[in-house]
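Progress report, Aim 2. The chain analyzed during this reporting quarter is listed below.
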Amino acid sequence: MNMLAYSKRMTYPRNAHIERETKGKRMSLQLLPSRQAQIFKLAKERGRVLVEELATYFAVTPQTIRKDLNELCDRRLLTRTHGGALFPTGSANLEYDERRAIAAEEKKAIGAAAARLIPDRASLFINIGTTTEAVANALLDHDGLMVITNNINVANHLRIYPSFEVIIAGGAVRASDGGIVGEAAVDFIEQFKVDFAVIGVSAIDADGSLLDFDFREVKVAQAILKNARRAILVADSSKFDRTAPVRIAHLSMVDIFITDRCLYPSIRDLCAESGVDLIETAGPEEAARPAD
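Predicted structure tokens for the chain:
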């Protein structure tokens, strides 16, 4: 198949990001070599692609994939990260369903690791986020939990289990993800003192800052941290490659940080210095693998 025929037959789902692209950038997509076009499509669907997974998928060497990713990033179609590339989102947050699809297996493993730390009959906060939802999913074999949440998705999922007491915060419901935010939610959270807080974030800065996009959600997350005896941060490694404008807290303020891989020595050192237990679900060998 020649490239002209391929480019006519290849289609991409539309979204706001692509619609904002210039005509020159759309032409750039049409002129991509076949494998790079498929890589771009996979990145757009999943939010992130990894070198090793792509090398296996296309049956080529990791060096070949790195070259493809570098060329896609040179065209400003993807953003290079440790071990792979991200579909660029700028400073805007991704749609909630798209966020669920990013690193889904990693989030599942993180959720399972967090659930193992929470005993039966514990009380806990769970805040907004797709990784915190994965924790909620992993808690279903527990008994006698009191779960207080500002996440409608978590409440709706857990409410059908009679052994759980599910309490949902009041306040403004954010249309994009069903999160409950604002001063009313903060006041509600302040009524409790629980055993655990399970929190997710939108981004983690190299200096340990935990970041989010919505200052109203940040206020709720801060109240959650303040009113829990132990705080568990759950975040997959793609959060190291994102930015967000509003500061929630500092990594040193949590007790446990669960991620799939921590590739930043500064974050690893910060956890050690601050007494934060770092749990990497990829396992020591995979977690220590050098970044691309």
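The chain has two domains: 3-86, 96-287. Confidence is low (pLDDT under 50) at residues 1-25. These observations will guide the mutagenesis work planned for the next reporting period.
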